[in-house]
Amino acid sequence: MSNIRVRFAPSPTGFFHIGSARTALFNWLYARHTGGTFVLRIEDTDKERNSEDFLNVIYDSLKWLGMNWDEGPGVGGDYGPYRQSERDAIYKEYIRKLFDAGRAYEKDGAVWFKLLGERYETFDDHRKKTVEKVKVAPTVIDDLIRGRVERVEDEDFVIVRSDGSPVFHLVNVIDDIAMKITHVIRGEDHLSNTSKHVELFKAFGAPVPHFAHIPLILKQNGPGKMSKRDQGALVEEYQRRGYIPEALVNFLSLLGWNPGDDREKMPVAEIIRLFDLPGVNQSNARFDDKKLAHMNMTYVLELPPDDFVARAKAYFARHGTFAAGMPDENYLREVLLLSQPKIKGIEDLPGYTEYFFTENFSLNEKAAAKIMGKGDPKTRLLELADALKTVDFSNDLVIEEAIKKLAADKGLGFGDYQSIARLAVSGTNVGPNLTGMFRVLGRDRVLARIERFLARQ
After folding, report:
1. Is there a catalytic annotation at residue 47?
2. Model pTM score
3. Residue 233's pLDDT is what?
């Protein structure tokens, strides 16, 4: 294992945002690529907004996405505790170090960090008041993604509020020092904080970690960063909808990173092998839920049969699709595998397969009007029902050949029977392979449905 240590430090104040998941992923990928350590640290000092429910969402989402942490809550490690709410004693020790070094002072009930340099007063046009500033050289940040960045930090700043709570800048740096973090990989919106953090690292006499500020994720439409209120922004929504977590990981990895070629679908092991910070873009990445849905579809199509069935059953159970309990195991498997090549996502299965599990399925009126308005569909259905009475329904090919023979005998095509047959048996004009659908439903149910459909016409 290398000495590289990275961390993901979320706050449990809301649902798990797609941007947070991408930040966690880039840290996790870098740790796995370099053989380093991925630390999960919880920034839970906001007592009014923190929630154990939101914290559990973070844990569950990371586990669902396959991002196991090497150190952190539930795992332990040499640098705990890993929740900031449990680290007060550590923060007080470090604050005392700043006072002892003459780098902190009290004012207006708060604790301020003292910059080094000649002080002077000037009128601030923006704040409309005279402020004290410090003559300092620009802070230079050699960012591994942004390149050389210079920022001027020329005013003392608060590190402990008047209520005694330490601010983000202070605890963030203390934790990075105490946990020996070597690389800070975070969103570009934190770049403005980095000069403060560098000053604190130096004041503590600690090595400054390598910074890598990754591009923002932009909302799908219009300007601005994607927020928790935007469509598609919450990770748990994809979990609820039955998305394949590997598809979401694959998609997120490409939001701001380029593997060096045109490949898009890659297994996680390959992404880990290729991922490195020089491949991360500087320009922001725009979220595209259609692209994500397409990637998820490709993953669904390629799932091994047992895996697909297991995921589908878990989705049905989670959503209470079958109120009376799961259908017969073998029958359910047949239905699912017949549907797999045709669906866009597992979330489509309940609606797509409804008619396999009930005789009280709905009729698509628009499809019915279109199909019943062409040719002589009732006659075709009567002919088909008569021809199917002696057909072996255990074999797709036998069913197909019987329909083809009927069509040839009548001087018609397979399609003249297919549309009306599908409508009568399933209530719609889309679905899996017709002969496969007939085989799974069985001859008795197919003929009964055709008879019932004709009786209503």
Report:
1. no
2. 0.92
3. 87
